[in-house]
Amino acid sequence: MAGFEYDITKHGAEAFTRVAYFCSEEGECGIEEVPADQLRILGDILNGRGAEGWELVQLFFNQEGVLAFWKRPL
Questions:
Q1: What span, in angstroms and rounded, lies between the C-alpha atoms of 56 and 14?
Q2: Residue-by-residue DSSP string for the chain
Q3: Distance of alpha carbon 24 from alpha carbon 9, whole angstroms
Q4: What is the pLDDT of residue 21?
Q5: Strand partners of residue 20
Q6: Would you say 7 and 70 are in contact if contact means Cβ atoms under 8 Å apart?
Q7: How far is residue 64's CA from residue 16's CA, in Å, rounded to a whole number?
Q8: Which tens digits make up the pLDDT trace of 28-71?
Q9: Higher pLDDT pick, 15 / 20
């Protein structure tokens, strides 16, 4: 059975200056106030890694930036 390899990448906050990530009292989480240029930056990251065969597993946002977890088949 083939397995996966994993990678974790960090993308600095300077590229995502207005990302507002929040969770409601009901536990629903989302992103608001994301300017179009920052959506493009995030899309470029996702598409670039996807072209290399990586699949996004999870994104974490905090004041230091974005941490992305990836996997792809061996």
A1: 21
A2: ---EEEEEEEEEGGG-TT-EEEE-TTS-EEEE---HHHHHHHHHHHHHHHHTT-EEEEEEEETTEEEEEEEEE-
A3: 27
A4: 59
A5: 32
A6: yes
A7: 9
A8: 766 666 667 777 888 898 999 999 999 999 988 777 778 899 99
A9: 15
Name the residue with tokens 């994301």.
34
Count CA within 13 A, CB hemisphere, residue 71: 6
Determine the Cα–Cα distance for residues 47 and 70; give it in Å rounded to an integer: 12
CA 48/CA 9 separation, integer angstroms: 12
Locate 58 and state its tokens.
């999870």
Handedness of CA 37, 38, 43, 44 (dihedral sign): positive
Token pair, residue 7, equals 């990678």
Domain spans in the chain, listed from the N-terminal domain onward: 4-73
